[in-house]
Amino acid sequence: MKWFIGIVGATIGIAHIGVLGHLINLTGKYADRPQFPSINLPTGGDYSSYDVNVGKDGYSIKYKANDPKVMSSERSLDVDKKKNGWFGGGSEKRSEYRRDEYTINGTRNIGAGGAATDGEGKSAKDVECIVADAGARSQGAMAGTAISAGVLVPAVMNIPYVGWLAAGWATLLGNKVGSEVGSEVGGVFNDC
Length: 192
Hints:
By secondary structure, the protein is of the alpha+beta class.
């Protein structure tokens, strides 16, 4: 059994030495060319781009789908004219500058955290719901503050050393809870 284990060990050792010699010879033969794996680079369409950097230490790939994602348009207007009004005289100097950003499908970015519109803007129902929600939150916050000032503040005001601080927290809590409840109630009543 000892002979068998010795023969198997010697065979594995010789195989390792052969593989190492092959790798050293291969590295010396292709030392002038960088070695990198064969990668299927994505081709996502006309507006996609990628950048591959290969070196001795490794490689990196930067891929951008739908690049450029945002296109921009800039317009400016300078007006310098004399106004002859009812009593004559006067002049107007005005300078306007507008920069719009568009996505690839033509929707215009109107700001507000990246919200986009197709030129029409928000519907009348959306605007009505936003206005109703703002009013409901305001009314709810006032009601919540009043209720907490009448119920919670007197109860927590008597806590030694931190009663004054707890009273402020109770008022803020009533304001926040009232605002959220007002928003929910306003959404139900205005069908939003």
